[in-house]
């Protein structure tokens, strides 16, 4: 009878206990953070989980326990003495408390004396176009980990960048082949612009020997559509309402009707350019493979040529450099108003590059220090429904095995990119992560973007992409390149086992000449000459025309090997004469490439005078400065920019890469894409 | 015990053959271990462990690759312990990152790291390098300041200086007679030298008129840290005082940065017309083309501007060098043994070889590296052929180290952020600068 009374007097005991334990467990788990960011957090999380488990067991067996708990308590009271029980419970509680408090206390004491713990450093490789954005992302992740760990970051991210071609080859070669010197440390994470690059690295890997690449993870983390950016002040109101409705074909027509020039990054150097070309050709139904004999149908060929001619003319008129989207946007954005081409230029770019530029313009920042940007240079984005997108893969590379600290840290970084916080940061750098609906800057109407555009997020079909590349090569005008190589006395200096500066430069030239196609034209000068400012060793001529009985590349390499460096550097005179020699053929894209290690020593001409003389010749001047000299302000850079060319600095290790990239863009032949 | 001994001797008596065999094996093993462990290393020619030594170092950009040439010499002398350089990028941040990766992940077993002087505390503190055996090490010939960067607080030696460095003031001799001896004197020269027509030298046309007074390194890398720290020192300010307190919030520090932030573009040329802030090469290019009167740069640029192998100087303007009119930051790199090296004796021998007087002389004369040994600068022939040698030595002896911190990289990065903010704001140092730097040196990120 007494048992029965007890059974009915406390029916709430077990459910309440289960509820209390449930709440306690959940609270501890929450305190422990998800995922636990420190050892203390991990202990709290485990304790919470155990208590929650206990609560669940209680709830499950509550029916069985119902009425038995008082009997159990009575048994314990009868058989265990109170002081003993109090001591056991007290010790258990104290142990639990010490267990909970001591790890964070130890961390606090240690940090008081010596600051934060040492963190693992991981290296993140990205494209040169994404360098700044990925730095922002890495910084956000660092702060995120610090926020959850008492202000101490749990990882450090070192961002390195390389052009697409260089990165693909370096990963394919398992970071051999001088990648440590030319690019930087082994990357633990690779964030290329497109999965095309990952596929290319995998395809190229067998050429370097060894097993498969150490790719531990490979998935898309975000996308960005290819868009057309038009200066906002030039977009008529009726077009603004159809920003997401005009397919690429109609946009081409409409932009011509509006009198806009059309510029696009180089498809051989930029993934944006490559995908944009595919989208443009697809919109004209022009992506059928080129026939085996190397020729497309005459009608299609003409349409592709018309597109490319329009783009080439626009690039020429505006003095845009070939290459990636950042250089294009920067030039478009910062060209002094007086030199801005008369027709406004519509820029084919990624949405991400466009909104980041617009944000910088709004923020008063600019590519050129001290220049106040004009608001009307903000670009308005058009989203053709048939556009393609970059799919930004996250590629984890386990060089040192899956259990290295770097592998764990890289895995955590990848996991963070799939969380709400990670996606928010991806959006903050202008990308569109999957299944994320928050709309905020920079992907907002305020920055001339469409908050929720419709576009394909699938990677491009490799076969169609290859067909596009074939079409592009046959459609664009052939390149006409005069290369002038500095053979002054300073080029005699040895750079190590590789030989003298001149020999290293010659090796780089030899690599780039492999890209010469039958249609392209090439000539070689060396300066100073034996009697004048330069010697024309190989006159400009088509790639399939032999010179002195041998192919043009072989003739050029043989000529360079026969040169004995010495004398001064008549750089400016050579540029003036070279531009005159390279120009004159409207059916070719004419360029003068100057390879030098120094400055003009002749003193006859000023840089400003040279720039004035070569500006309107229709020949782009590219100066590659090797060694320590750099591209000095107001001289070589000024001359190159005045023609729509560039001055680039290269090390003796990288001169070959720079030449290959440049010639890949200048010639129509076997481009690196 | 006695019973057990007796039983044993009985057993030996019963089985004399087996017992002899066992005793022979035991003695043989012991002797072999003794010989291999102690006697053989003493008997071999140099007592060095055999096997390839790996040296991780930044790209050797010296003319003729002089570091590699020295390693080749070592290999001829020590064919059983040959060395190989794993070359890294020429960018210091990239070098540090790859060395950290190697130390943290336990990849390829590198024996020697060529560490920037500012990374010594970090690599030492994390146990990535081991102290040198200085029992028979003669360090008397090293310049004191570079050698100090190899020591910890207790004076223990953790490496030897491979090369040292100190900034120099390059100035145009067609515009400047006597170089300035203080920051104020340099600034005061502006109206005079910027308005003067460059003097023509015999056989040389007059150089171009300068567009600005001074240039240095202002891009977002360690160069900005160095230039900003020197600018603060030049105005008698400090970043970290002798007691280790961060004191960047002083008026003097603000004065130092406000000069660099001068709104007058004729005063400081910090970027190219393309908007790119200068590294060493670009500022040397601007000086070479006569765009500035003064330049702060490292001694290696002396030879770039006046290449020994060329029959015409690279610089368009005549120039000379002087000590900076303020303390220079002490640069340089130290060779240290990886704590994971299985050949510490051979590694130390290689370090001693690479930092010997003869090697240092070769590295200075042929490679242009600032030597860490006094004797190189004392050499009469060196002084005759390289007139800047004594100036360089004085600059090194007067140079100051950057703060010695285990988290120097984070500290320097935050310092640059603060400097950039200050330069964009007329030199005004942000009010939270002290807290931010304190957090950074303790590894915090808030």
Brief summary of the model shown:
The complex is a heterodimer of chains A (673) and B (446). Chain A is an alpha/beta fold and 673 residues long.
Structure write-up:
The complex is a heterodimer of chains A (673) and B (446). With 673 residues, chain A is of the alpha/beta class. Chain A is 45% helix and 14% strand. Chain A has 25 helices and 16 strands. In chain A, strands 13-12-11-14-15-16 form a 6-stranded mixed beta sheet, sandwiched between helices. The longest helix of chain A is centred in the N-terminal third of the chain and has 33 residues, at 82-114. The radius of gyration of chain A is 33 Å and the shape is elongated. In chain B, strand 1, helix 3 (66-77) and strand 2 (83-88) form a beta-alpha-beta unit. The longest helix of chain B has 28 residues, at 16-43. In chain B, helix 1 crosses helix 2 (16-43) and helix 9 crosses helix 10 (251-260). In chain B, 43% of the residues lie in helices and 13% in strands. In chain B, strands 1, 2, 3, 4, 5 and 11 form a 6-stranded mixed beta sheet that branches. In chain B, strands 8-7-9-6-10 form a 5-stranded mixed beta sheet. Classes of the chains: A alpha/beta (673), B alpha/beta (446). Chains A and B meet through strand 1, helix 7, helix 9 and helix 24 of A and strand 2, helix 4, helix 11 and helix 12 of B.
